[in-house]
Design goal:
alpha/beta, Rossmann fold, 3-stranded antiparallel β-sheet, globular, binds 2-phosphoglycolic acid
Length: 250
């Protein structure tokens, strides 16, 4: 694991965007695994900026997103399809036919999950998988559990995740209770994983990810078994790692 500590959110975003841009420069037809949430917004802004300046092109890139709320259409402004269009795809030269997000409205959600796994496998898995991390250590919507789930699956969101996501909806009742999420299989099959974290609220989750036992109680801890993980965090998110004496790059 390589861990970069950046001063603040802006510097974290810039570092993460550089790592993604490097992947695209190395292989313009790469497959990027993408994430939603507030953490990657600054990273996407940097990528948009560089694309608009002509320094980066998504023309041949394919993307696969981690998850989608069950029951929301891509037109709903809190759906993750909408988020991706709004924060990245509408502003870069990507072919949207090559951007994939699980379909939250699929009549048969289980079948949609199975098809999503087949799709990601057929694409050869992500060359680089971007991840945020939940306060409870979730990645995608893989919530703390008694076992890891390998396949893409339908999950019941935990109260803490519903609470954390209420800020994006008019009220708590409007937050969907279920989501379709990649399991840890596709995430672990990615060539490289880039996990980004910002703020003190993530410090425990990041510490448990790196230093804790590998347990489904902290889903991100499975990344200890991945051969190529890069964590980029700001000082607050990495504070507990640093206090524990874990070496970080600056
Ligand atoms: P956040 O969410 O970026 O909005 O904090 C991260 C996550 O829950 O994966």
């Amino acid at each position: 694991m390589r861990i970069y500590m950046e001063k603040d959110y802006a510097a974290m975003s810039r570092r993460a965007a550089h790592i993604i841009a490097a992947e695209i420069h190395k292989n313009p037809a790469c497959v990027l695994g993408l994430a939603t949430g507030s953490t990657p917004i600054g990273t996407y802004q940097k990528l948009v900026e560089w694309c608009k300046a002509g320094d980066l092109s998504f023309a041949e890139v394919t993307t696969v997103n981690l998850d989608e709320y069950k029951g929301l259409s891509g037109e709903h402004d809190q759906s993750y399809r909408y988020f991706m269009n709004d924060n990245l795809f509408n502003h870069v030269d990507i072919d949207k036919d090559f951007t994939f997000v699980p379909d939250g409205l699929a009549e048969d959600a289980e079948a949609e999950c199975a098809e999503y796994d087949e799709l990601v496998e057929a694409l050869g898995y992500a060359d680089l998988q971007l991840l945020g991390i939940g306060h409870n250590g979730h990645i995608g919507f893989n919530e703390p559990d008694t076992c890891f789930t390998k396949e893409t699956h339908v999950v019941n969101l935990t109260d803490s995740t519903i609470d954390a996501n209420t800020r994006f909806f008019a009220n708590r009742d409007e937050v969907p209770r279920q989501a379709l999420t990649m399991g840890v299989g596709c995430i672990m099959a990615a060539g490289r994983v880039l996990l980004i974290a910002s703020g003190e609220g993530k410090a425990d989750a990041v510490y448990n990810t790196v230093c804790g036992p590998i347990t489904p109680e902290c889903p991100a801890s499975i990344l200890q078994l991945h051969p190529d993980v890069v964590i980029v965090g700001d000082e607050a998110a990495l504070s507990k790692l640093v206090a524990a004496g874990v070496e970080v790059c600056k």
